[in-house]
Design brief:
With about 475 residues, the chain is of the alpha+beta class. The chain folds into three domains: about 110 residues, RNA polymerase II/Efflux pump adaptor protein, barrel-sandwich hybrid domain (OB fold (Dihydrolipoamide Acetyltransferase, E2P), Beta Barrel), CATH 2.40.50.100; about 70 residues, E3-binding domain (Dihydrolipoamide Transferase), CATH 4.10.320.10; about 220 residues, Chloramphenicol Acetyltransferase (2-Layer Sandwich), CATH 3.30.559.10. The chain is about 20% helix and about 20% strand.
Length: about 475
């Protein structure tokens, strides 16, 4: 019997120290190939899929879903198909009937007295690669299992009700596998169910192939709160920040307050904002502009065939305006090097867009946005925000930003004083565009008005530089045709 391999949690980003096991994609007994995705983890920045660096049979899952493990901790054991998990036998024993007819027990001198070695070294040479390292591989299909669908089982998820002995489930339920099965649901849906205190095993699935959808969970939560038989688990479960924890009177089912651990993306966001706020002296300037011409430009662009299949919004125009304005004031696109006591001016723009996600605030960035056409920029922004909303932004897309835009206008908010993203020197905040009275010549007329705010690091960006940049952006929003001057 050959040695088994233990796959340790790798550092998939710069300085990663720990990650949460979100969902296992495999179970004990599954056969995997190199680069098959085996687990989803949540780092301090995003959800990452980890491929297996080994081929073989899953012998053991060494961490449970929902558990936070440190980098370097073994999380899964993989070995030859049919190999044991390698515990040492306590004493010689006669072969069982299941070992096959004609099996002969080895002489005492050949009976192992210690478990076989576990290979905890780095993956073997060849095509084995970890996510974020080496060439990208095509999606590989896992070999079909011999077990019937009714025998599929899964790792127990903390907080999920498990069926009683003899209890049956719906489609895909396990019966006789020896381990409690679970409902089929995506990781985000499973997390939502935990946050709302919904028992996934009691939810009737309506999604594809018998999966529980987000709508199924929300419907079950509403029914539990409205009905007289609302479960105690639903009332006691902690509410997600994104779902809201406030209620009328004394709270849901008498609940006065709830708690939720700060970890993952939220923990990283909190640390980054504190470090930025107490390291860089922030100065924020405001300007209110007539954005009517920008609104009209957006309407015209939407009619052009180049933008037929891509989203066009005022954010696109403001992003382009910022990229052009940075040409005149490149110091805004820089970073302060405290150790070297130098200002590092970037001659490229990795444009960050602050995005609110169910797991917290993230700031992915569009690489080399300064070199893109307007159509390319529109496609990049759409792809970036869609990926962020799904919680699938990769660590590489979150690193290396040089300048950031945050859009609070989508919430109907007029403006704000944004905190600079760590490692950068400035951030622009977009407020909502609203019809307001505006003086044009000698008359007061209704115009589409918005407020722009710029926060910048006052250690090396003085008021004149920051004001010049903000004025340039305001001019471009007021009259996009002035872009010809840049």
């Amino acid at each position: 019997m050959s040695a088994a391999h233990e796959f340790k949690l790798p550092d998939v980003g710069e300085g990663l120290t720990e990650a949460e096991i979100v969902a296992w994609r495999v179970k004990e007994g599954d056969v995997v190939a190199v680069n098959d995705v085996v687990v989803e983890i949540e780092t301090a920045k995003s959800i990452v899929e980890l491929p297996s660096p080994y081929a073989g049979q899953v012998l053991a899952l060494l961490a449970a879903e929902g558990e936070t493990v440190e980098v370097g901790t073994p999380i899964i054991r993989i070995g030859e198909p049919g190999a044991a998990a390698a515990p040492a036998p306590s004493a010689p024993s006669a072969p069982s009937a299941s070992e096959g007819r004609g099996a002969v027990a080895p002489p005492p001198s050949e009976i192992p007295t210690a478990p076989e070695p576990i290979d905890t070294n780095v993956p073997p040479a060849g095509n084995a690669t970890l996510v974020g390292y080496g060439p990208k591989q095509r999606a590989l299909k896992r070999r079909a299992r011999k077990a019937a669908p009714a025998e599929v089982s899964a790792v127990v998820v903390p907080g999920e009700r498990q069926p009683e002995q003899g209890e049956q489930r719906g489609p895909g339920s396990g019966s006789g596998s020896g381990r409690p099965p679970r409902a089929l649901a995506k990781p985000l849906v499973r997390r939502l169910a935990r946050d709302l205190g919904v028992d996934l095993t009691a939810v009737v699935p309506t999604g594809p192939k018998g999966t529980v959808s987000k709508e199924d969970v929300l419907a079950a939560a509403s029914a539990a709160e409205a009905g007289p038989g609302a479960s105690a688990a639903a009332s006691a479960a902690p509410r997600s920040f994104t779902q809201g924890a406030l209620s009328q009177g004394s709270g849901a089912q008498g609940e006065r307050e709830s708690r939720e651990p700060v970890k993952g993306v939220r923990k990283n966001m909190a640390a980054a904002m504190v470090a930025s706020a107490f390291t860089a002296p922030h100065v924020t300037e405001w300007v209110t502009v007539d954005a009517t011409a920008t609104v009209e430009l957006v309407d015209r662009l939407r009619q052009r065939r180049e933008f037929a299949d891509v989203k066009v919004s005022p954010l696109l125009v403001v992003a382009r305006a910022c990229l052009l304005a940075l040409r005149r004031t490149p110091l805004v696109n820089s970073t302060w090097d405290e150790a070297a006591q130098e200002v590092v001016v970037k001659h490229y723009v990795n444009l960050g867009i602050a995005a609110a996600t169910p797991r917290g605030l993230v700031v992915p960035n569009v690489k080399d946005a300064h070199a893109m056409s307007l159509v390319e920029l529109a496609r990049a922004l759409e792809s970036l925000t869609a990926t962020a909303r799904e919680g699938r932004t990769q660590p590489a897309d979150l690193a290396g930003g040089t300048f950031t835009i945050t859009n609070v206008g989508v919430f109907g908010v007029d403006g704000g004083t944004p905190i600079i993203n760590p490692g950068e020197s400035a951030i622009v905040c977009l407020g909502a565009i609203k019809p307001q009275p505006w003086v044009v010549g000698d008359q007061v007329v209704p115009r589409q008005v918005m407020t722009l705010a710029l926060s910048f690091d006052h250690r090396h960006i003085d008021g004149a530089t920051g004001s010049q940049f903000l004025a340039d952006v305001a001019d471009l929003v007021t009259d996009p045709a002035t872009a010809l001057l840049f």
